Amino acid sequence: MSEIVVGGKYKILRDRYYSETDEWILVKDNIAIIGITDYAQKKLRDIVGVELPEVGREVKSGDSIAVVESVKAAADIYSPLSGKVIEVNQKLLDSPELINRDPYGEGWIFKLEIRDKNEMEKLLSPEKYSELIKEKEGLK
Amino acid sequence: MFSTPLLDIESKLNADIGEFAGWQMPMKYSSYQEEHMAVRTSAAFFDLSHMGRLRVKGNIDQFNYLIAKDIRNTPVNNMVGPTAFLNDKGGFVDDVMSYKVSDNEFLIVTNAINREKVIHWIESNSSLEVEDLTFKYAMIAIQGRNVWNFIEKIELKPLEFRLNTKFLGEEVFLLSRSGWTGEDGVEVWGVPETISKIIQRLVSVGVRPAGLICRDSIRQEMGFVLYGEDIDENTTPVEARYWVFSLDKQYVGREKIIEQLKNGVEKIRVGLKLKKGERSIPRKDNKIKLLDSEIGYVTSSIFSPYLNRVIGMGYINSKHAIFGYSVNIEIRNKQVEAKLQDFPFI
């Protein structure tokens, strides 16, 4: 199975890492592609706006880097790793709903050149992240 | 926590259920934007079973003294509304729709959050008899620009209603015609099993289910208020520019209304229109500024899919209430430009 489904509705893909603040991290060589999880987009409901970081910005892990505007609230997106922003998903400026429609694909938010691969040790595996959601949702 | 009695059928329609005013209700089915456009271009139905529904019986003069609009000359089988119960300071106890069943019987629809408060308020200010029908009947609204292409044309004029009648072949308790969304349509009250059957019929002919987020975006486009966000016990109808009162009779709160109409008000509700392409959403209590002066605060805001821009409303110092003015809204320490404008937005 390439995915885990928690509570019958929250999809978690097995090919990537996760953070405690509901970001996903897909690592290829020294580059991390980052977005928000299916759980996060479902909790936010309709996403109507995104503030993206500047390309070239240096970030530390845990820095607030982007903002997702939904009907419910504005949610900060945190960088799960330290590094340099090398690309942002410009499509989201006109079509922020891509995050709702395809959170793990077309709804990606930014790409990061990873500074320190050792930081990846504190990221969550798909299994660990599914446990975290179960805890948050009282499904344990 | 209460739950809509239509939860089963709504779950089958993939409703995203969330909490509103102490009720588990459908927030959306697909995206609120698609549902919103369905109302503005074809037809959609909403579950409104969370709203309080009361039967009030007794002396019409007592009822007329509690409610801000004059209901004495309203024909039987007609709605009066929106109107309101006001406190003695002219503030909103609740804004309501009322239905004249006879000279000594009315039905009232309250905001979900105010149901118990309104019951208590009527009982403590009159000898009227109040019966709570909220849990007996489900209520849906079917509304949209082309609603009559989907359902049979009913024999009701706008604001008319019928009790114990038929709709789509089913026996319902109440059928009314009002256009709360700014579009034509009907409201139906019935036992949950009957309303579930009606929903199945509606879905089969292409009427789209819509949730409460869409209801919020629709009402904001019309400039309608939401209790607890845009109006409350400390806001008057004059400040809210919400014309729910009469001047031709006595009622609770009238003195304050008269005083404000004579002397003017300090704050006034206005519409806020952000630039196209601006996707930051003002949140409740965000400051409204003109140059460097703080002149007011935001009460509601949402992205309007129909206008493809963010709209909202709030209260500003009445001296600054000049439509067309550009102001700044402070959203998370960022100044975002908005224009003051009148309602409705569409």
Please give a structural write-up:
The complex is a heterodimer of chains A (140) and B (346). Chain A is 19% helix and 37% strand. Chain A has 140 residues and is of the alpha+beta class. Chain A has one domain (18-116): OB fold (Dihydrolipoamide Acetyltransferase, E2P), CATH 2.40.50.100. In chain A, the strands form 3 sheets. Chain A has a 6-stranded antiparallel sheet. Chain A has a 3-stranded antiparallel sheet with strand order 6-8-9. The longest helix of chain A has 11 residues, at 126-136. Chain B has 346 residues and is an alpha+beta fold. Chain B folds into 3 domains: 2-48 and 135-222, 2-Layer Sandwich (Gyrase A, domain 2), CATH 3.30.1360; 53-132, Alpha-Beta Plaits (2-Layer Sandwich), CATH 3.30.70.1400; 266-341, Elongation Factor Tu (Ef-tu), domain 3, CATH 2.40.30. Chain B contains 8 helices and 20 strands. Chain B has helices at residues 7-12, 32-41, 60-66, 115-125, 192-204, 212-222, 237-240, 254-263; strands spanning 2-3, 16-20, 23-28, 44-47, 52-57, 78-86, 92-102, 105-110, 129-132, 138-143, 161-167, 170-177, 185-190, 208-210, 267-274, 287-290, 293-304, 309-317, 326-331, 334-341. In chain B, the strands form 4 sheets. A 6-stranded mixed sheet of chain B has the order 11-12-13-10-4-14. Chain B has a 6-stranded antiparallel barrel with strand order 15-18-17-16-19-20. A 5-stranded antiparallel sheet of chain B has the order 6-7-8-5-9, with helices on one face. In chain B, helix 2 packs across helix 6 (212-222). The longest helix of chain B has 13 residues, at 192-204. The radius of gyration of chain B is 20 Å and the shape is globular. The two termini of chain B are 36 Å apart. In chain B, 45% of the residues are buried. The model of chain B has no long low-confidence stretch (mean pLDDT 96). The A-B interface holds A 42, 45-46, 48-51, 67, 69, 71, 73-74, 93, 96-97, 100 and B 16, 18, 27-28, 31-33, 213, 216, 279-281, 283, 302-303, 310, 331-332.
